[in-house]
Amino acid sequence: MACEISFLPVGNADCIVIHADDSVVIVDLGNNPRFIYNWLKRKNLSKIDRIYITHSHRDHFPFSSLKKLVDFLELWFSQGGEVETFSLPLGIYRDAFTKIDTLKSSDNLRYQELKDAVDRLDDWDRSNKVRSVPALRDPTPATLDDLQIFTLHPRQIFIERHRGRVNEISLVLRVVYGEFSAMLLSDLEGEGLKDYLSVAKASDSKTLETKANIVKIPHHGGYPTNGGDLKELLAAIDAELAILSVGSNNPYGHVAPELFQALIELQNNNGQRLKQFICTEVTRTCIHSKLKRSSMGKSGLSTPQKCAGEITVIADILGKWQLKTEIANHISTIKSLSHAACDGRADI
Question: How far apart are CA 160 and CA 169, in angstroms?
Fold first, then answer.
């Protein structure tokens, strides 16, 4: 028996598939649900036990047009696929109805598409074709045989206090399979990062909830204004492997040099377990010097280029794990990059 966690190469977005024994869990759909549909079909997987949507930004969930989600599900169901449960950010339907009310007066196509999509989701929920539940911090995990998934952030009070700050209320998930664990930090930043860190510190002595073998770095390698909190959280997680889902041509300057520097410092700290960090795609920081980047603004590379490509961690129930990358010559790719951060050659 084994647990496979695959980080799909969907650009500057997130789409993660957890396949443990007979259970399939998806965390985020990226910005093109057809990609995950094709991936699942290639793997001959037909039942999705749970889909977590960490937050409503389009690089994680096509909320801007729920039609994309409905189209994906219509296609999935038409091919005999099943979905048992959606775990959605609290208030996502309320936000959709608010948008519908805003668009109604203009009587345009976007209004009709969104209304039809919400109606379809409502039909599926009513008929138990797919169950929808809100995602909040909960000490009780979703349990699928030997797989457990804990929702660690956000708290409901925090959501109500910080409504509209979408990244700050994005989900933090801890995946546990026997002695193996993974922390998935979605796009956590700002007050959300600060709040989760304080909650984790208060409970960690009893639960060890932050400890994990691997960590998915938040926000595609962006560096928050409260970078000190991020460094403290990563040190507390004390992972052996850090994974970055990043797009080469993103217009945000990801991966931020400060983030790479924080990871390098963790690697060089004898008190930390971090041995490796790895990216789905090549980043501008690994191609260009600091001087060159200073003239680029936030723009990324002109074309996407895979570094590791799809990243899969295969773990057994005793906690032993191995890394598998889509790009067979991944090491050669790294060696070809003039400023590869993971190889200690970044010009930061």
Answer: 10
